[in-house]
Write a structure and sequence with these properties.
484 residues; alpha+beta; Beta-lactamase; Nuclear Transport Factor 2, Chain: A; 9-stranded antiparallel beta sheet; 6-stranded mixed beta sheet; 17 helices; 32% helix
Length: 484
């Protein structure tokens, strides 16, 4: 079944080709190879390529995707930040004077921020992966007041064999804590002056045309923001598409682009093979000889929403594999063995040109942000191996200088240049303007406060846009040359 995510988009032959290749998903899931998969929905270039339901609930079935809800909570926090109701660095517990005095009182608890809960890195002793952790979610479900449960947790200890936050990647010690995300629900209600479900309906779901939603609720009445939100599979894919498109839907900015970017950047190291953003899982997959980066939502049982920027695709897998051991790897196997190879077909990617501007901009952002964030993998993804870069300076006496750089040198730049965090500000102002896209060639102009770039890109046979040439020059060349 093929449908578009937005009425302005139309289906193309490449979508039909890919949909046929995805029929293998139907056969494998129906045969029970992946246990109790209830639905699989795949979109690429803004179009639904594959939509199949394997239970009696069908397209209108509300899927309890468990902790996928947490990522939706991060979206709601972003909307509250945009409306100046919150900041990422807002201290959480001082907003709950009714919970004081706190058990295990400690001044560090008063400094726990919204961002700490978004990144699963508060100092509270709270670990759902540890059955004897005082903050394990199963203990929370036994009591009536979940906010007090969280606020009364003690500070976590760090014995010698466990790295402290300052010794951990991104300066955060990660542990999966549902209780912290659950407390964000009552916080949202306090600052917004309305219920979580009403705030979500007005500001997130209505703009996306999502009108069928079922929340679960805490014993005290607040919507459960740590899990249990039920949505249709096609509405889950809308949420992934929203972030793939930088927070835009139907030509309107629903979630600020800056919040989207912060949310999907590594903020903490979760476990081997996984980084963590603002309640987004960041991981890479190997399929068909390639490594594909993703960010995604995940819930118990292997429920998944994968966003795949390189492939301009979103994949939803819902399941009832709640009692199946290895449910998450099972869903990921379905993705890597059957879905990704179909999305990576050269003819399909190269034939579609409706998403070229977005893919060109994504490659350019990889080029910029890889230098800011010391992320050579993103630089490598953006560049053609035969990159030629020329940098121009001019001294006060009029003498010109030209520096030549290749792809290997640019990877070194991405790895080392901003390692101290001082070469680029946290949010550098860089304007991106696509000057021209003609078939498989594009020209892009970058403008910053002190320099200007012209980038030339081409689209290879796999449909990937690669930077092949960069011309770079300072505005105030006489001043800048004196610094060299």
């Amino acid at each position: 079944m093929l449908r578009t995510l937005a009425l302005s988009l139309v289906l193309t032959l490449c979508g039909q080709v890919q949909a046929a290749e995805l029929d293998a998903v139907t056969s494998a899931v129906s045969a029970g190879d992946f246990k109790q998969i209830t639905s699989v929905v795949v979109a690429q270039h803004g179009k639904l390529l594959y939509e199949h339901y394997f239970d009696k609930e069908g397209a209108d079935g509300l899927r309890n995707t468990r902790s996928v809800t947490k990522t939706v909570t991060g979206m709601l926090v972003g909307l509250a930040v945009e409306r100046k109701l919150l900041r990422a660095d807002t201290a959480v517990l001082p907003n709950f004077p009714e919970l004081y005095p706190l058990a295990h009182a400690d001044p560090r608890k008063d400094n726990i921020t919204v961002e700490d809960f978004l990144t699963m890195s508060s100092l509270l002793e709270c670990d759902d992966d540890n059955q004897i952790s005082r903050g394990n979610e199963e203990s929370m479900y036994l009591v009536e007041d979940w906010s007090r449960f969280t606020a009364d947790l003690p500070i976590r200890g760090f014995p010698d064999w466990q790295p402290r936050p300052e010794q951990s990647p991104h300066g955060r010690a990660w542990s999966y804590c549902t209780a912290g995300v659950t407390l964000l629900g009552p916080l949202l209600e306090k600052v917004a002056g309305q219920s979580v479900q009403d705030f979500a309906a007005a500001n997130l779901f209505k703009p996306l045309g999502i009108d069928k939603v079922k929340w679960q609720f805490q014993p005290k009445g607040t919507a459960m923001t740590g899990g249990g939100l039920q949505l249709r599979s096609v509405d889950l894919i809308k949420l992934g598409q929203l972030y793939l498109d930088g927070g835009r839907w139907g030509g309107k900015q629903v979630i600020p682009a800056a919040w989207v970017q912060r949310s999907i950047q590594p903020q903490a190291h979760a476990r081997e093979g996984y980084d963590y953003g603002y309640l987004w899982w960041l991981q890479s997959f190997k399929a068909a000889g390639r490594t594909v980066q993703s960010y995604g939502m995940a819930g118990s049982g292997g429920n998944k929403v994968f966003v795949l920027p390189e492939l301009d695709a979103v994949v939803v897998i819902t399941t009832t594999n709640f009692q199946v051991r290895g449910a998450h790897p099972l869903s990921e196997k379905l993705l890597t063995t059957l879905i990704l190879p179909a999305l990576m077909q050269p003819s399909a990617q190269a034939a579609d040109n409706t998403s070229d501007p977005r893919l060109v901009e994504a490659a350019v952002r990889d080029y910029i942000e890889s230098q800011q964030r010391t992320d050579p993998a993103r630089m490598e993804r953006a560049l053609d191996p035969e990159l030629a870069k020329r940098t121009y300076w001019q001294a006060a006496d009029g003498k010109e200088f030209i520096m030549k750089t290749d792809a290997a040198a640019m990877l070194k730049v991405a790895r080392h240049y901003n390692k101290d965090g001082k070469k680029f500000p946290p949010q550098p102002r860089v304007d991106i303007k696509i000057l021209d896209i003609d078939q498989r060639v594009a020209t892009v102009k970058l403008s910053a406060d002190e320099w200007i770039d012209y980038l030339h890109l081409y689209k290879n046979q796999r449909g990937e846009w690669k930077i092949v040439n960069v011309l770079w020059q300072y505005y105030d060349t006489s001043r800048q040359i004196s610094k060299q």
